[in-house]
């Protein structure tokens, strides 16, 4: 497989699929059943059907002809079954889209690893928070004001975000409960946001393609804090690429911490967002410990 898969499960792994859900909490097990149509008694059969479909796949589009779909690790396949709500066709298309996206953008996504992006993670533009939202989704905070836009290209922030998502999606609780993102626009500048709005990652819908079509995660909410007027410029470029479901999950909170706290307990938030946690380098440590 291509190097950009980073720490995702190795295709040679032979994990027994009957034990895959052993780490899930009872609440998440029930959510997987109700929201993802996951049935422990038929999970193994679903994995095998997806594996067979991958092994018999033949490209139908020119852009697919150089794709190699070789990773049939059971834990890896289970991510796509959950992402496709255990609909075999949707899970398979998500699997193909995942590989096609990384193939189309292979130049941008080469060396997608901690060593090459450590300098970006240390800026804390993108951080993984310690807790979860009330719906169970993993909390990620993006702080554009920390971005040194003169020295760090916007594409590196995108690459670092994907590196983090690839790491987090290995956790079964996150596969079931998803992600929610907080954008803290404290100290952001008009010029930096203008650079974002002009980036091809935005104008060509690359970012939204990843989130909606080519990644097996559930994106449960986008929360905007301290958003200045010019954020509407970025949103006006992005929204045409968004499905209505994602549009409906954008929440603007302004300066109202209490509004944000209706979605996430202050105990799970850093102090800058009206929470109780000290800021730290937990995101960097998450990679250094593996």
Defining traits:
290 residues; alpha/beta; Phosphatidylinositol Transfer Protein Sec14p; Helicase, Ruva Protein, domain 3; five-stranded mixed beta sheet; single chain; 44% helix; 2 domains; 15 helices
* Count of individual domains: 2
Major sheet size, sense and barrel closure:
5 strands, mixed
Classify the helix fraction into a percent range. Answer: 40-55%
Number of strands: 5
- CATH fold title of the largest domain: Phosphatidylinositol Transfer Protein Sec14p
Per DSSP, the total helix count is 15
Instruction: List segments where confidence is low: pLDDT < 50 over at least 5 consecutive residues.
Output: 1-6, 11-19
Strand coverage percent: 5-15%
Distance between the termini: 20 Å
Side-by-side strand order of the widest sheet: 1-2-3-4-5
User: What's the rounded overall pLDDT mean?
Assistant: 88
- Which structural class best describes the helix and strand composition? alpha/beta
CATH-level-2 architecture of the largest domain: 3-Layer(aba) Sandwich
Task: Specify the overall morphology.
Answer: globular
The Cα radius of gyration reads 19 Å
Short overview:
The chain is of the alpha/beta class and 290 residues long.
Explained architecture:
The structure is a single chain. This protein has two domains: 25-104, Helicase, Ruva Protein, domain 3 (Orthogonal Bundle); 113-288, Phosphatidylinositol Transfer Protein Sec14p (3-Layer(aba) Sandwich). Helix content is 44%, strand content 10%. The protein contains 15 helices and five strands. Strands 1-2-3-4-5 form a five-stranded mixed sheet. Strand 1 (126-132) and strand 2 form a beta hairpin. 30% of the residues are buried.
